[in-house]
Design goal:
8-stranded mixed beta sheet; Umud Fragment, subunit A; 5 helices; 28% strand; 2 domains; alpha+beta
C-alpha cells in the first residue's frame, strides 16, 4: 500500500488535482484520500478501478506490479473471439464459492485478461458445485461491477466476510434470499446487514469437458 500511496499522490499532483477534488470524483472524504496516500488505509477494488480510469493508468501500475503506467501483466486470453479487445480486467486471486462460502483472505489481481465486451469489470474463478450445471467447478465468471440488481440475477456478493456466487431474490426491505442452481443446497435467507453486492454475472466460462477414450 505504500507504493500505491506514493503513485496515487504522484498522479494526483501531475494532474494538478487537490485531494478534495479527487475525493469529490470518488464520492469519498478528503481524509480517505490522505490515508490512501500515507498508506494508512487500503482502498476497495471498486475505488482502485475508478482511480485507474480517472488517471488513465493500469491497475497494475497503481498497485506497484509494473513501472509502465500502461502495461498490463499476465495477458492471458480468456475468451477467443474475432472482435476487437476493448479492455483488460483483473482476475482475482480469491476464488468464489459455489458452495458454502470462501473467506477472501487474499483479494488482489492475479493476472489481467483481454475482454471483448464493455460490461465486464472483474473475472473470478469458481470453486464448488452449488451452481452446477450452470457453473462448473473450476469455471470462470465475468462480472459487471453494479448494484443495479434485478430479481433472479446471478450475483457475486460478500456476506459476513464470505464470498459467494448465487441467485438474488428480494424478500422485503430487510431480507434477501440467495439460491443455488444445485437443489441440494438450501436457500440462504439473510439480513441486509453486512451484505455487499460486488456485481452481476454477465458471462460464464466453464472448463472444457475432458475427453474419455474407449478401450478397443
Amino acid at each position: 500500500m505504500r507504493i500505491f500511496g506514493k503513485r496515487l499522490r504522484l498522479l494526483r499532483e501531475r494532474n494538478n488535482m487537490s485531494q478534495r477534488e479527487l475525493a469529490e470524483k470518488l464520492g469519498l472524504s478528503t481524509m480517505a484520500i490522505s490515508n490512501y496516500e500515507l498508506g494508512k488505509r487500503e482502498p476497495d477494488v471498486d475505488t482502485i478501478m475508478k482511480l485507474a480510469r480517472i488517471f488513465n493508468v493500469s491497475v497494475a501500475y497503481l498497485l506497484g506490479e509494473v513501472d509502465d503506467p500502461k502495461k498490463q501483466p499476465g495477458e492471458v486470453k480468456l475468451i477467443i473471439h474475432d472482435e476487437k479487445v476493448v479492455k483488460y480486467v483483473p482476475v482475482f486471486s480469491t476464488s468464489i464459492s459455489a458452495g458454502n462460502g470462501i473467506f477472501p483472505d487474499s483479494f488482489y489481481p492475479l493476472e489481467y485478461v483481454p475482454i471483448t465486451r464493455k460490461d465486464v469489470d472483474y473475472v473470478f474463478n469458481v470453486e464448488g458445485d452449488s451452481m452446477e450445471p450452470e457453473i462448473k467447478n473450476g469455471g470462470r465468471i465475468l462480472v459487471k461491477a453494479t448494484t443495479d440488481i434485478n430479481e433472479g440475477d446471478m450475483i457475486v456478493c460478500l456476506f459476513h466476510g464470505m464470498i459467494y456466487v448465487k441467485y438474488y431474490h428480494k424478500l422485503d426491505d430487510d431480507k434477501i434470499m440467495l439460491t443455488s442452481e444445485n437443489k441440494e443446497y438450501p436457500p440462504m435467507v439473510i439480513d441486509r446487514e453486512e451484505f455487499i453486492i460486488i456485481g452481476k454475472v454477465v458471462e460464464i466460462n466453464n472448463p472444457p469437458k475432458s475427453e474419455k477414450f474407449r478401450k478397443r
